[in-house]
Amino acid sequence: GQQVMQIPQYQHVQEGEDFTTYCNSSTTLSNIQWYKQRPGGHPVFLIQLVKSGEVKKQKRLTFQFGEAKKNSSLHITATQTTDVGTYFCAGRNSGGYQKVTFGTGTKLQVIP
Amino acid sequence: EAQVTQNPRYLITVTGKKLTVTCSQNMNHEYMSWYRQDPGLGLRQIYYSMNVEVTDKGDVPEGYKVSRKEKRNFPLILESPSPNQTSLYFCASSPGNSAGVLTFGAGSRLTVL
Description:
Chain A is mainly β. Chain A has no helices and eleven strands. In chain A, strands 2, 4, 5, 9, 10 and 11 form a six-stranded mixed β-sheet that branches. In chain A, strands 1-3-8-7-6 form a five-stranded antiparallel β-sheet, with no helix packed on it.
């Protein structure tokens, strides 16, 4: 079945440093979503990417979808303590519209 | 307020004692789904439903049952819980009959002794 891996599993950064998490799927995706889960909270939708090579920005966050639609990345510029949490990618199979497979998540800790 | 409501939020139970985790959404969403979250494994889908009376297995359905008799409700049933079902459970819903943008409930932390 489809597998979605994320690296790194954990990342500690000094406040103000940049952070990137990578998401890789074993199969081609129709789209990819990103979610953020604050400590003790639930996943909250951030963004969805659909097109091959698509790049979207939300303030200090930059999301990319690979040309082959099998990988994606989330980059945060100049991290802040409010960025703390676990970031998940979630890929929808190109043939299975009912199924979204979540990545393993990257837990970000920002040191003030 | 648009939301997905899960109950109970916390539960400690013993092996073999049947339990139900309720999930209700007020957004008229067709699609609903259950996930379990375990350290290092991310969110794994247990069951999903595309509409009333339409359910299907996700990646880890063993030991769980679901039903979708009404559009707003999607309970998760553990007929005979075992310790390996100790986990954090999330219910989620999305508009349309496919998995679009998901709105998650607050989560239910279950411990099976």
